[in-house]
Amino acid sequence: MLDKVFKAFSYPQFRNMWLGACTSSIGTWMQQVAQSWLVYQLSDSPQLLALDTFLGEIPIFLLSLVGGVTADRFDRRKIVLASQIVQLTCAFTITALLYFQLIQIWHILTISFIVGCAQAFGGPAYSALVPSLVNKEDLPNAIALNSIQFNLARVIGPALAGIAMASLGPTWCFGLNGLSYFAVIASLLSLPNRLPVVPKNESPFESMKLGINFVRHREGMVSLVALGFLMTFFGLAAMTFLPVVARDLLKLSANGYSQLMSISGVGSVCGALIVAGIGNVKQKGAIASALLVALGILNIGFAYSTNFYLSAAILFVSGGCLIASFALVMSLVQMRTEDHMRGRVLSVYNVFFRGGRPMGSLLTGQMITLVAVPNALAINGALLAAIGLWFLLGQRKPADHG
Fold first, then answer.
1. Were 292 and a residue from 17, 198, 298, 388 both cysteine, which residue would form a disulfide, CB within 3.0 to 4.6 Å?
2. pLDDT by residue (tens digit) across 311-370?
3. Which helix (H) or strand (E) covers residue 47, if one does?
4. What DSSP state is assigned to residue 118?
5. Is residue 271 within 8 Å of residue 326, measured between CB atoms?
6. CA 141 to chain centre
7. CA–CA distance from 283 to each of 126, 272, 293, 368, 399 (Å)?
8. CATH number of the domain at 2-393, out of 1.25.40.10, 3.40.30.10, 1.20.1250.20, 1.20.1740.10?
């Protein structure tokens, strides 16, 4: 059974990149926990907390199409390396500003935007790099294991962030994140060059147009892209405003907030492990839609919970539902795409998948000014459950084969 769950680890290049990415993701989650808490502490404003999320994610919405074209026209390994170096520099910049007590909200917002721009290019290149490291039949397993490394970091990173903030201060979270990038850089340097896969006589605009047309005309792809957008638009509000819930509703310290983040990460790891274990299961789209229905209902429960243990239990289960759904949808997208189109198609998917969260965060931030925080989060949950049910039962159910 374990051999099946961890099948993609039998490929040395994938294994090395997974370890490097996991180390870097731990640092990233340490910074994300510290940064969200720091923004809310400095501003006492849910709207600025939403703006920080928006600025970190909106470049991916705006630039991912360009990033996808770049991933198919240049060495994907070098693009990911450049992205990591930019993010490393940003982490050390905030570390220095905190150390010398010069930090201001606009510093954090600006750096969030720069990191988002780097991820807009690095994300499609990284996603397009993964299928070249494993055989096609093991791709769903590799995608699930990638989800595991990201969410294992959601367990370890917030836990370490809580310890660091309580004993050493937030500066260490940013500094350790900067150091963590060296691990993924080392793993990337061990890979061979990945030559461009697009003909030299094809213009960037033509490449972008081909990627969009591929999504439009390939069976089921439009539904998958729409599902990815709606999943993050309505499904991640609880995580965006978790500092508000933790501090103001559950009356927790920074350590309690980081514990909730870790518990959500544990649930996500479990969800990804289940997807990895079941392998290339049929009816992926239907299962993903059903999981979104469950996630929406769970988010309603979380919105009105005032008990730490109940909230933690809900976050555990909802984390598993979210990541399992994401991994299933991403598997369908990857398996329906040829390698020479992969960077562009994944960039189109990322535009909507990553664009959902900043737009949803801004909308929820505005709702909070009109209704109480629990009501705003519950509205998101109810809409997500309705959308999942529509995809599950309606005419726009994502194609399930593949």
1. 388
2. 999 999 998 998 888 888 888 887 788 777 777 787 788 778 877 888 898 899 889 988
3. helix 46-73
4. H
5. no
6. 18
7. 27, 17, 16, 37, 8
8. 1.20.1250.20
Higher-scoring residue by pLDDT: 336, 279? 336
From CA 88, how far away is CA 288, in angstroms rounded?
A: 34
Q: What are the φ and ψ backbone dihedral angles of 401, each rounded to 5 degrees?
A: -80, 165
How far is C-alpha 291 from the chain's CA centre? 17
pLDDT of 283 strictly over 80: no
Note the pLDDT tens digit of each residue in 227-240: 889 999 999 888 88
Domain boundaries, the chain: 2-393
CB-neighbour burial class of residue 104 (10 A; exposed 0-12, middle 13-18, buried 19+): exposed
First to last CA, the chain: 23
Distance CA 328, CA 323 (A): 8
- Give residues with Cβ within 8 angstroms of 126, minimum separation 6: 21, 76, 80, 83
User: In the structure, what pLDDT confidence band is assigned to residue 401 with cuts at 50, 70 and 90?
Assistant: very low
| Position with higher pLDDT, 168 vs 382 | 382
Q: Extract the tokens encoding 63.
A: 């630039």
HSE-CB of 375 using CA atoms within 13 angstroms: 7
**Sign of the C-alpha dihedral, residues 349, 188, 22, 119?**
negative
Q: What is the pTM of this model?
A: 0.72
> Is 306 strand, coil or helix?
coil
